[in-house]
């Protein structure tokens, strides 16, 4: 566990707001010089407090939805559990894989074009797990409401981040060409990469990269640039609160969301359909501190909450909003369109 001072907390807060902000921009927000900010960011990376810089992609615009899966295992050895985790991590359509404690042993999320597509992928995974599977639950993820981190104790000064849609209600209405896809891939690996670096790797010009990034943001395909912060390294435990609710009227739903927004330790909230209606992801320094948050949520919404479960998340093995399988499918479509366009130009010429 690492302790950090107020200056580092302010830098992390600024990076949480915009992971691609310039050193000068961060320096003006936190009241430090550009050189000091650069040094402190490098130091946070070396300590593992900052894991990397990435981005969030709205896959619903590209025709993909997100589905959550929770697994209870049985007769499982450590070696076999590692095999299952490795299988989930290497699966081209998984987005998020964690090991947890509570009612469920493993949880993951994956992208699919529709429920049938999702079912086909789940059947393959369940066949791999075989007799080691005791039970499982699935849900459809409608949206994710992320919140700004609150390392400096002033969460009220930040608005909630934009809600991310996770369920595609219509066929894809947006097309990407192969250069757009490669730029997104590069930024997912390092959202702070310079235009020159990206352009060099993709054999294009910095001006083209700048234009493409701005266009992807304007079209809301890129939703945000963010820093991945290791709360575990800072001494926080990670809890997931799964809530089953009576179907509340819209006013009560808004009240619930406002209560959630007032609790600093909640990093994001998922709205879904299945076994649970809401999932809250909470970082807390101890079980006692988590219990206080739980009691606040339960007491404020006692008339709506039917039941709830708590998971302790020990380790996150995968996290991406642009999984390899989606990339491959999009590239195939893009290259076919580019080939067709090239053939038409040649025919006209």
List the helices and strands and how they pair.
Elements: H1 6-17, H2 23-30, H3 34-46, E1 50-57, E2 65-73, H4 78-90, E3 94-101, E4 106-112, H5 115-129, E5 133-146, E6 164-165, H6 178-189, H7 195-202, H8 206-218, E7 222-229, E8 237-245, H9 250-261, E9 266-274, E10 278-284, H10 287-300, E11 305-319, H11 324-348
Antiparallel strand pairs: 1-7, 2-4, 2-5, 3-4, 3-11, 5-6, 5-9, 8-10, 8-11, 9-10
Helix pairs in contact: 1-2, 2-3, 7-8
CATH topology of the domain at 60-150 and 230-319: Alpha-Beta Plaits
Gyration radius, in Å = 21 Å
CATH architecture of the domain at 60-150 and 230-319: 2-Layer Sandwich
Describe the biggest sheet? 8 strands, antiparallel, barrel
The secondary structure category is alpha+beta
Low-confidence regions: none
Mean pLDDT score: 92
Order of helices and strands: HHHEEHEEHEEHHHEEHEEHEH
Strand order of the largest sheet: 2-4-3-11-8-10-9-5
Q: What share of residues is helical?
A: 40-55%
The outline comes out as globular
CATH top-level class of the domain at 60-150 and 230-319 = Alpha Beta
DSSP E strands, number: 11
Total of helices: 11
- What separation lies between the terminal Cα atoms? 65 Å
């Amino acid at each position: 566990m690492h302790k950090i001072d107020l200056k580092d907390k302010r830098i992390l807060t600024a990076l949480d707001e915009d992971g691609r902000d310039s050193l000068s921009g961060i320096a003006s927000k936190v009241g430090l010089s550009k050189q000091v900010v650069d040094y402190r960011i490098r130091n946070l990376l070396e300590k593992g407090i900052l894991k990397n810089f990435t981005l969030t992609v709205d896959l619903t615009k590209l025709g993909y939805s997100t589905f959550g899966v929770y697994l209870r295992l049985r007769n499982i050895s450590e070696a076999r559990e590692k095999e299952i985790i490795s299988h989930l991590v290497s699966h081209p359509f998984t987005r998020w894989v964690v090991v947890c404690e509570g009612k469920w042993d493993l949880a993951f999320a994956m992208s699919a074009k529709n429920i049938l597509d999702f079912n086909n992928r789940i059947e393959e995974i369940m066949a791999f797990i075989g007799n080691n599977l005791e039970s499982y639950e699935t849900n459809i993820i409608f949206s994710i409401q992320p919140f700004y981190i609150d390392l400096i104790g002033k969460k009220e000064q930040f608005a909630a981040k934009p809600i991310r849609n996770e369920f595609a209600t219509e066929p894809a209405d947006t097309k990407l060409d192969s250069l757009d896809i490669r730029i997104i891939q590069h930024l997912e690996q390092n959202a702070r990469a310079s235009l020159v670096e990206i352009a060099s790797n993709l054999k294009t010009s910095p001006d083209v990269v700048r234009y493409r990034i701005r266009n992807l943001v304007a079209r809301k395909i890129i939703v945000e640039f963010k820093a991945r912060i290791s709360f575990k390294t800072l001494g926080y435990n990670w809890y997931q609160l799964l809530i089953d609710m009576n179907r509340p009227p819209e006013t009560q739903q808004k009240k619930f969301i406002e209560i959630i927004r007032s609790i600093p330790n909640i990093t994001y909230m998922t709205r879904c359909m299945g076994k649970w209606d809401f999932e809250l992801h909470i970082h807390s320094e101890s079980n006692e501190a988590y219990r206080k948050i739980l009691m606040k949520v339960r007491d404020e919404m006692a008339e709506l909450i039917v039941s709830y479960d708590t998971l302790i998340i020990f380790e996150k093995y995968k996290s991406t909003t642009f999984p390899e399988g989606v990339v491959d499918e999009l590239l195939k479509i893009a290259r076919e369109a580019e080939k067709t366009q090239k053939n038409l130009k040649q025919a006209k010429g």
